[in-house]
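Comment thread on ticket #2218

A.B. wrote:
> Attaching the input chain for the structure job we discussed in standup.
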Amino acid sequence: MKRINRKEKEYFERIFRLISEDFPKRCGKCGENYADEREYNRGTTEVEGFTNGLDEFGIIFYRNCKCGSTLDLVLNPAKWKPIDNADFIAYLDRRAHTLIRKGIENDQALNQIVLEFRERYNQYVERRH
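C.D. wrote:
> Ran it. Output below, let me know if you need it in another format.
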């Protein structure tokens, strides 16, 4: 995977601060607690059959707790006020247009962007600690 560039690092740092407000996170089914995002990523698994997405609630990432319960982590636009939304949306939009030009359909491009974003963001979280 390519290195995280300076602009991505800037976005990721802002997002990390916002997501940190959602921790500790607790599974409603078994009571498992996740102190921070790194522990959450390591203690949960990706959900098969669910599509991470971008909708009116924000970017949603689904993970399974050890007990099998599905948890979500939402990057909510309402919380993005400290982030320069236009700049971040332009970043995602540029990536979408690149994929569409390569022949990937709109919905697939959006899902791929979200997955790539999450993968690169997770890489940032792991290196940050």
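A.B. wrote:
> Thanks. Noting for the ticket: The mean pLDDT is 78.
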